[in-house]
Amino acid sequence: MTNESTAPTADAGALESLAAAPAADLRETLLEICSSPRWAEAVAAARPWRDRTALLDANAAAMAVLDTADLADAMAGHARIGTPKAGDATSEREQAGIRGADSALLDDLREANAAYEAKFGHVFLICATGRTAATMLASLRERHPNDAATEREIVRGELRKINDIRINRLLDGA
């Protein structure tokens, strides 16, 4: 019996191309995944990645060491929940769950976002992929009472999930 990974199999060519990319090109690609320069540097420093799992592990390791300023850099690349960046296919895809939400729900989401941003000083960040507007609003309300340190660690975990999805899409050629 073999020990098989549960991670999807990477297109070896995509992974090899990414690992072999010139430093400037790799940095640009990584900054499209996560807008924290420190994250991009840490992930790049971990190459070559032997497989998809190693690249995802590099994401996790890089996320684990980001300080508050680095997390702010990473969050700066994300649109406010409920208002994807117009013309940004990634933002629109990740927030597809708001499509079709009624105006009252979107108004509630805007109000909750404003209260969260006033308290924490940054956008509410959640891995929105596969979530509806209602579930994102419920999560926002659930997290609003958190203290800053707790919320920072939740944000770190959400960023890691988002990065994993973006890395997998990149490797899958999506």
What are the salient characteristics of this protein?
174 residues; mainly alpha
Structure report:
The protein is built from 9 helices and no strands. With 174 residues, it is mostly helical. α3 (37-45) crosses α4, α4 packs antiparallel against α9 (148-171) and α5 (68-75) crosses α9 (148-171). It has helices at 12-20, 23-33, 37-45, 52-64, 68-75, 89-94, 103-120, 133-143, 148-171. The longest helix is centred in the C-terminal third of the chain and has 24 residues, at 148-171.
What is the global morphology?
A: globular
The arrangement of helices and strands along the chain is HHHHHHHHH
* Beta-strand content bin: under 5%
**How many helices?**
9
Number of strands: 0
Largest sheet: none
Oligomerization category of the chains in this entry? single chain
Alpha carbon gap, first and last residue: 33 Å
Mean pLDDT over the full residue set? 90
Q: Could you name the ranges where pLDDT drops below 50 across 5 or more consecutive residues?
A: 1-10
Provide a short characterization of the protein structure:
With 174 residues, the chain is an all-alpha fold.
Produce the secondary structure layout:
Layout: H1 12-20, H2 23-33, H3 37-45, H4 52-64, H5 68-75, H6 89-94, H7 103-120, H8 133-143, H9 148-171
Domain Oxo-4-hydroxy-4-carboxy-5-ureidoimidazoline decarboxylase: 20-168
InterPro entries: OHCU_decarboxylase, OHCU_decarboxylase-2, OHCU_decarboxylase_sf
Enzyme class: lyase
